[in-house]
Amino acid sequence: MMSEVAQYSHYGDPLRVVRLVHQPLEPVKENQVRVRVLMSVIHPSDLNMIEGKYFHQPPLPSALGREGVGIVEETGSDVKHLRIGDHVISPFESPLSWTGWWRKEGLFDAHSLMAIPKDIPLEQAAMLCINPLTAWLLLRKTSDATKGSWIAQNAANSAVGRCVVQIAKELGISTLN
User: Is 8 a catalytic site residue?
Assistant: First the structure.
């Protein structure tokens, strides 16, 4: 079985270094999941990675795509938290276990994936891993804001800033943006 994958083997201008390659898909190991990609997005950090400017880089050559959503096609024997047909995202993927979402299909470490409700629109599901989680961490881990309090932020028109506004509203925190 083969999969088409967008990858780069050296840093540079994305239009010059990204190539579409065909890679064989190995058999699923006991702790892996084979995922068919439903949608992936271009995140600014993807471009930084291609240019060699991102602070964590997977080893080259590398597949691309920090965010995406897929459907589980096959699970390894040790995988208990995912089922065939689940929609999944990879909020826990790291450069050490990198698969990348700019592909048709891929083998992901099961621990890097989480199932999400199928009624989330694919366009939204594909963008759940970076900006919303960053906003959540800003509000819950680096702030002592609680229900009824106020926070102020600049750059509120960025994706993270907009997520902060939405999550803060759900948490009962007022924002000045």
Answer: no
